[in-house]
Design brief:
By secondary structure, the chain is an alpha/beta fold. The chain contains eleven helices and eight strands. It has a five-stranded parallel β-sheet with strand order 4-5-6-7-8.
């Protein structure tokens, strides 16, 4: 049976989950209609995974300041299991970024999450380049928020052209771009990313894109570079699965997206 791996989810410690979800929903609703389909707790994600036949999920954290590195690492170690694969986070302003990245590798984690809007950086600025170089040297994966973000003004800090520039400089960097390359910037995805060996996951995109454009982006991209992701709890895992199947990509391409590509990336 095909293993399904969700490459983009979020959960919070039980003691802050209610407060965190309330704050994020309030921020998101200022600019966009956004809903939560789970309560932000790990137990709820696992229940959703069980209902939908999802074997493993990547859980992404975001460090909004350097001091959050240690609590994120501690919590990531606490929740990881055969089914939950945490990607900790470090802040780009952390002076000990090299040590932090080595620590993430030494603790056995597979990757790191970055979010340019919440962490206040543009992905191609000079101060990020040594960070990418170190992450690449440690053979870690980056899950990078790309495209616009519904809670922020539309400034172009993680758009497809910048993504392409970064990966031209660091061709061995295993960067997973979220939301089918760049959220609500999909014409630019087709211009700068499609057809290149750049990973993208499908979360929070099929809900918005036309079926025609979603199929065009995916079918014109290298088959091994598209991953299943949901951004749960902000979308429903079952809905994203149904939307993917509705694209009628064929069983071979569908199996690659649902889990084969993710398993191969995680095993590298």
């Amino acid at each position: 049976m095909q293993e399904i791996i969700d490459f983009h989810t979020h959960v919070f410690p039980d003691e802050i989950a209610e407060r965190a979800m309330k704050t994020l929903l309030e921020e998101g609703k200022k600019k966009h209609e956004v809903n939560a389909y789970l309560d932000g707790r790990l137990s709820s994600l696992l229940s959703s995974m069980d209902r939908n036949g999802i074997e493993r999920s990547i859980v992404c954290s975001i460090a909004t300041k350097p001091s959050q590195f240690e609590p994120i690492i501690a919590w990531s170690k606490k929740i990881r299991s055969d089914r939950i694969i945490p990607f900790p986070s470090l802040h780009p302003d952390d002076r000990d970024f090299a040590g932090r990245i080595s620590r993430i590798r030494d603790e056995g984690f597979k990757g790191i999450k970055f979010h340019p809007y919440y962490q206040d950086f543009a992905i191609d600025e000079e101060r990020l380049l040594p960070i990418y170089e170190k992450i690449s040297a440690e053979n870690l994966i980056i899950v990078m928020h790309t495209g616009f973000d519904l809670a922020f003004e539309r400034i172009r800090i993680c758009d497809p052209e910048k993504i392409a520039h970064v990966l031209e400089k660091f061709p061995d960097l295993k960067m997973v771009t979220t939301h089918l390359g760049a959220w609500e910037d999909w014409d630019e995805v087709e211009k700068h990313i499609v057809g290149k060996k750049i990973f993208m996951e499908i979360s929070y995109a099929l809900d918005i894109l036309s079926k025609e454009q979603a199929r065009r982006i995916i079918l014109n991209h290298p088959g091994e570079y598209v991953l299943f992701g949901t951004d749960s709890p902000w979308t429903d895992q079952s809905t994203t699965l149904a939307l993917l199947k509705n694209l009628e990509l064929g069983s071979e391409r569908e199996d690659l997206i649902l889990g084969e590509n993710a398993a191969a990336l995680l095993d590298q």
